[in-house]
Each structure stands twice: as structure tokens, then as C-alpha cells.
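Researcher: Please predict.
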Amino acid sequence: MQKKAEIMDLRGNRPTRTRDARALVGAFAVLVSLLFSPSASGEVIEIVVDDLIHPISAEFIERGIVEAERVEAEAILVILRTPGGLETSTREIVNAITRSAVPVIVWVEPAGSRAASAGFFILVSADVAAMAPGTNTGAAHPVLLGDQLDDVMKEKMQNDSAALMRTVVDKRGRNVEAAEAAVRESKSYTEDEALELRLIDVIAATRDDLFDQLDGRSIRRFDGSSATLDLDDQQVRTLEMTVRQRLLSFIMDPNVAYILFSIGMLGLWAELNNPGAILPGVVGGLFILLAVFALNIFPIRYAAVALILLAFALFALEALVTSHGVLATGGVIALFIGGLMLVDGPVPEMQVHWVTALAVSLPIGLISVFLVTIAIRAQRRRTDTGEEGMVGELGTAQTRLDPTGKVFVHGEIWSATSTSPIEAGSTVVVTRIEGLHLTVAPADASSENAPPPDRPATPSI
């Protein structure tokens, strides 16, 4: 019993010296884990979204969140400036933000930028919503593309968007009434108004200022938990779009899509007028497919597509019919109006600008008429080479033809047969060629008055 008492105290605990040793080992283990843990890298992933909200921008934001989760970053910073975009892509982004294991900071900057419509949903769904001085947000009323639904369906879509807004804002602890007013009444807010109404968390002019204000701040996660941001001296790594995302995002501009479609139509038209050229057809088909891919996400007016097709038909008729430019002018007007009407977007950034439509319609019209005119003239031009080129040529009888003899045609002496007697030195016209033998006839009076072709100094037979 005495020996056992030396090992255990009255409460059954190890002696103090043993507990101290275990505590020292545990502290060392914690220190090692802090030094070598991946989360100790202190990295912030930054992405810039300066475009319409469409499938490619949604894919880019989701990729940034996945990368931030992979490296266990302290946070992901989304620099946002957008006039709005598609509702489906907006929901994808909001879902990705609310599911993110890494805190998401959305910052509208620089001065003069905005996060309107779809951008407002993205801003208020973030763990931290921030704006720079001189920016604005809001105007999130859903605008139906094409505006072809009845009033009941419009009200349903508005209520659906308002419900999404209430859910997101309430989970973040922000002002539900002010956020819903942006959906139902299209209200917009400056950065000061948004901060006063508790729609955003901070106003920051620079990234350093933003990090200084957020460092050590406790934030409310979407699942109700809380987290503390550690942004002091964190390394910021900017994540760029891939080449594919950059290309597709560029193509998804309605102005670019319209240009691609017009050039593609021109290429196919050139191929039809010059079969076998191959290159215009390949380029035209490729451009049209790219344009269809981009325009597929936008509301397209089929009447505008019909106007563009009519324009190319009028360009072709201009080369066939003498209209003194009337048909070509009509084609340019049809192509211009078709371009303006092509995309029925709710904001100017989702429409074809009139400058683009004019800059495309005039050159395309001139080039189309030029190409078709050349093709038709080539088809109508009489053959000047080979056997067909000899028929109709004038020559001179070298000997009397009764009915056979020699004639000088095209710089050469030919054996010929005449349908009637022809005296030497008379002008003849070739009516037929068979191998190396010509059939000729006396030239008419007008042909006889024309100067005879050049004769060789010493004709050889």
C-alpha cells in the first residue's frame, strides 16, 4: 500500500511531475501542427468579375471557391463590377457562395463601378459585403427576357426572386426590407446608403483598407455558425480565367456574337458563289457555330434573324438586277435593323449597340455585292483560251478557200474549210474547230471594215 501511494494520490491522478511532462509534449505537438499545417499558409484567393453574369462568369466564381477550399485559404475575395445578367447563373453563384467552406468577401470597386441586378444578389449573399466609395448597387427587379409572359407569370417570377433575396439576406443578418425593396421596387443604393441600411458591412477604398477593417472581425456564416477573419499580412493570389473561359466570355458579348454571325454568313455566301474555295465555307461555318453558342443564352428575335437573311438575299439580287443600288441599300438597312433587334436584352450591355450594327452592315453589304458581282461576271465572261476561245475569232485567208485552204488566226497558220469560196487576203471568222482543223466563214461587212489581225513577216505553210 505504501508503494502504491507513491504512484497515485488520493484522487487517483498522476503525480504533478508526470502531468507537466504530458502538457509539455502536447504543447510541442500543437506548435508543430501550427508550423506545418496547410491552413497556416495564410493565403487569400482573389478573382475579378468584370462582365455580365452568365454561365462562364458563374463557372469562374465556382472555380475560385473550389481553389480556395483546396488550399484552405483564409478567405476568397471577389472583386465585382457588373450591370446584371442571367437569373439562372445568378442562382448558381449564390448557391456556390452559401455552400463555401471558405469565407467569401464580395467587394464592389473601384469608384464608378456597380453591382446592379444580379450583382446585388451576389453582393448580399457573401459572408462579407463591401463597397468602395463612389459605387452603387441594387435595382434587382427581375426583367423578363423578351417580355413575352403574362402578368401572372411575371408576378410569380418576381415573388420567386424576392423569396430568394429574403432567404439569403436573413441568413446573413442583413436588412430584409431594404433588400426586398431592391427586388420589388428596383431601388438602388449608394455605398453610404447600403451601409446605413445594413446591406453591406464595410466601405473600403483600397484592398489594404478592406483587410485592415476586416482583420479579427467575427462573421456570421450561412449555416448560422461564426468565424473570425485573420487577414493581417496575408498573401493575396489572383486567380485568372483560363484561356477557354476568356475566349467564351469574350464571345458571349452580344456585339461580338453579332459580328461573328454576320462574318459567318458572308463566308458561307462566298463559298456558295465560288464552290470549291473551301476556306470561306470553313471559316463561315465555324463563326456561325460560335455565334449560335453565344446567342443561345440570350433572348433572340427570330424576325431579326429573318432580316439578316433577307439582307444577304438583297445583296445577291443587286448583282443580278440593275437597281442602281436600291437593292444593296435595302440590304444594308435590313442588316442594320436586324442587328439592333437581334438580342432583346433587359440592359444595354445585353443588346447590340447601334454603332456595332452600323459598322458591320455597311462593310458587309459592300463586300457581299462586290463578291457576287465578280462571280457573276466570271460566269458570263466568254472563254478566251483553249478550243472554245478560238470560236468567233477573226483571221485572214492566206490562200483561196474553195472550200479548203490556209488561214492566219491567233498568230498561227491553220488548215481551214469554208462554207463558201473566200479569196486570199479576205477576213474570215472561225465558226468551229475540230482538232487542228478550222471551219470558217466570210466575215460580215462590219468585220471586213475592221483592221485585219497582224500577219507574220514570212508566213510559213
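Model: The mean pLDDT is 81.
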